[in-house]
Amino acid sequence: MFAKKSNSNNSETNNSHLTGTGDELAVAKYSSSQQVEQDWYRTLYDNFPGIYFVLDALGRVFSLNQFGESRLAYRSHELISHSIFNIFYCENQGQMQAEFAGLAYPKNGTRSSKVASWEGQLTCKDGSIIFVKATAHGMPAVDWKIEQDSNGRSITNFLRPAVLLVCQEIKAKVASPVSAPPKQRGNWRSPTLAIAKLAKSQVKERNNIEQFIREVTETAVSVINCDRASIWLYGEDKTQLHCIDFYEYNTKLHSVQIIITAADCPAYFQALKSQSTIATMAAQNDPRTRELASLYFATGRRTALLNVPIMLADQMAGIVSLERQSDRSEWTEEEQELTQILADFVSSSLSATESFKLEAMRREQQQNLLSQYYDQLEERVEKRTAELKKANKTLQEEIIKRKQVEAEMRRQHQEQQIIFDSVPAMIWYKDTESRLLRINQAAAASRGLPAAQLEGKSFYEIYPDEAEQYYLEDLEVINSGVPKLGKVELLPTASGQKCWVRTDKIPYRDETGQVVGVIVFAVDITDLMRVEKELQESRERLTIKVEKRTAMYRQAMAALYSANTQMQQLMNNSYSGENGSSTAAASLLECEAYFEAVAIANRDTILSVNSDFAEMFGYKPAEMAGMSLLELLSPKSYKVAPQMISASSNTVCETIFLRRDGTAFPADVRSKFVICEGRLVQVKA
Fold first, then answer.
1. 151-167: pLDDT as tens digits
2. CA-based Rg of the chain, rounded to a whole angstrom?
């Protein structure tokens, strides 16, 4: 447990913290300059080469600086809440305590500038002595905070810190030894006389039990060689011990307002139930009493403790408790008997006192504690209320700002969603594990499901057949960080059919630049693909027609030119007279001599064929008269039909023909114009 000045306004329970005042909320930070100044003073206090104690009005240690801890070999929590006079002695102890009381309890209620100095000795934890000059200053009235010990238990009620004691080491004075410690003092009066005086006082103070109880504790300290004596009474349910008087030899002061509970010390309360005396030389180590170590008595030295029960109507009503440093002798049988006599005095006084007076005393003590608690609680409530009002105002402002920010964010989100759903493309946003995080309305419609139902699902659930290929392509984009654009592929739709889409895959990066997903854009190009296909087919058909028409025109022009030439020749030869028919016949015989198959045709109509020609096609010569040459052509040679029919003289056409049985065979056709029977015909050989 460590005590320090409080700068916090947090509300705590009465047994845990005493909180100081302040103008700021407990959650508010100190300004930089204030914090630096506070740290500077704290460092100075802890490390200045002197031993500093902060004491309350009863002389109990409230705080010890780090240098003092190091010099005395005590830990701070081992001395806090215990009297300074357990380790400090001076030559004139009585005068020192009187001057200390003057500093701790100023007459006019205001701090005095008076300073008191004494020369004495401090006892270290190992028993060694340090001779010091001690200077005491009265402290200003400030609020201090008492922190709980490490076990979180309740603590002795502190008064406000009142005195700063500064000890500077000096050399030992051989000629002026300090007064002997309590272990060396003798009883100021024999036990018999002390008991007699106490009995007389009991009769005298019959109606003032509080005064008689004080005399009992003073007598115990005087007659029995101990440092502190106290009387404790049970509460109504015996789960609490209330100290009705506590007297300390060093300070010569009485105090009350100390409570020990069964919740804090269960083993100690269990030991008291035996209604037997507890006498131990090391209370900190004794399993019955060691729970008191951090709550009640000093832990710097081992403490000897003697508890004697106070019996009232055959019931244990409380205890008489004596304490002293355990480096003295053990509790003797005589000391225990004397303590039992004092307990009997208390018991008889309690029996003689009307019960309502005892109850009134306890109630008064509790009322005092409650009054202090309620005063502190009311002050804390007022401070806390002010803090809450200020915090509530700040909170309301923050709530208004947050609502405005949330409304703006909702508006922006709605706008973004509208834009997202209005894009004329299907959009998917996937993480690195192919899980769908966002999807727009067009993409969701392609699967026939709402977007909310698809988001969060794996692509392996949405597109089970294609998901693996999609994921491999996603990994290429994720690993390379390079977009993959313009891929044309088939995408399954909700109807079971597939549509053509053009897909772009773009890596999505977080604020650190790491690729955390892939954004996929897909545009439906099914109609475009169909139009392009139809356009391509139209182009091909048009090309065929153009080529065919061009060839026909070329052949017609060539045939026209050839016919014109031959016509001119025939006209020139017509003047030869009667020799015309014989010339045509001679030409036909010439053809038969040089070619295996010959036919005479008027344009595409066959007029006459020789036997070889008819045999080649599987017909008889008479059957072929009047047939069209186009009937003998294979469809593969339809393109060259115009050229073959209108070919000029000595023009050769490569053609595929069909026999009567449907078999095809290739042949070269040569054409020649002749006059036969007074008309112009072609000889096809």
1. 444 344 456 677 888 99
2. 62
Same structural domain, 175 and 214: no
What confidence tens digit (pLDDT) does each residue in 224-255 have? 878 889 999 998 888 999 988 989 888 888 88
| 111/142 Cα distance (integer angstroms) | 11
Residues 177-185, mean pLDDT to the nearest whole number? 41
The residue behind tokens 């698809």 is 454
Q: DSSP assignment of 229-287, as one string? A: EEEEEE-TTSSEEEEEEEEETTTTEEE---EEETTT-HHHHHHHTT-S-EEES-TTTST
DSSP state of 85: G
Give the pLDDT of residue 649: 59
570 pLDDT band (50/70/90 cuts)? low
Task: Answer for the pair 517, 431: CB distance below 8 angstroms, yes or no.
Answer: yes
Half-sphere exposure of 485 (CA within 13 A, CB side): 3
Question: What does the longest C-alpha to C-alpha distance in the chain come to?
Answer: 197
Q: Mean pLDDT throughout 272-291?
A: 87
Q: Domain residues for 323?
A: 191-353
DSSP-assigned beta bridge partners for residue 488: 502
Identify the domain boundary among 179, 203, 222. Answer: 179
SS3 state of residue 74: coil
- The Cα 652–Cα 630 span in angstroms is 17
Write b or e for each residue in 201-220: b if 16 or more Cβ atoms lie within 10 A of its Cβ, otherwise e. bbeebeeebeebbbbbbbbb
**Cβ proximity of 664 and 675 under 8 Å:** no
For the beta carbon of residue 143, count every other beta carbon within 10 angstroms. Answer: 16
- CATH classification of the domain holding 489: 3.30.450.20
Q: Supply the pLDDT for residue 142.
A: 56
Expressed in percent and rounded to 5, the helix, strand and coil fractions of the chain are 45, 25, 30
Interatomic CA distance for residues 385 and 214, integer angstroms: 43
Both 16 and 164 in a single domain? Answer: yes
Query: For residues 562 and 285, which has the higher predicted lDDT (pLDDT)?
Result: 285
pLDDT digits (tens, 9 = 90+) for 285-318: 888 988 887 777 655 567 889 999 999 888 899 9
Reported pTM: 0.32
Residue 400 placed within a domain: no
Give the position of tokens 């069909």: 658
Helix (H, G, I), strand (E, B) or coil at 129: strand
CA–CA gap between residue 67 and residue 148 (Å, rounded): 23
Question: For residues 492 and 494, what is the distance between their CA atoms, to the nearest angstrom?
Answer: 7
Residue 601, Ramachandran bin (φ over 0: left; ψ between -120 and 50: alpha; else beta): beta
pLDDT in tens, 96-140: 877 887 787 766 656 666 788 888 888 888 878 889 989 988 877
Residue 335 contacts by C-beta under 8 Å, 6 or more apart in sequence? 224, 225, 306, 322
- pLDDT score at 350: 82
Comparing C-alpha atoms, which of 350, 293, 291, 295 is closest to residue 319? 350
- 590 and 478 in a single domain? The answer is no
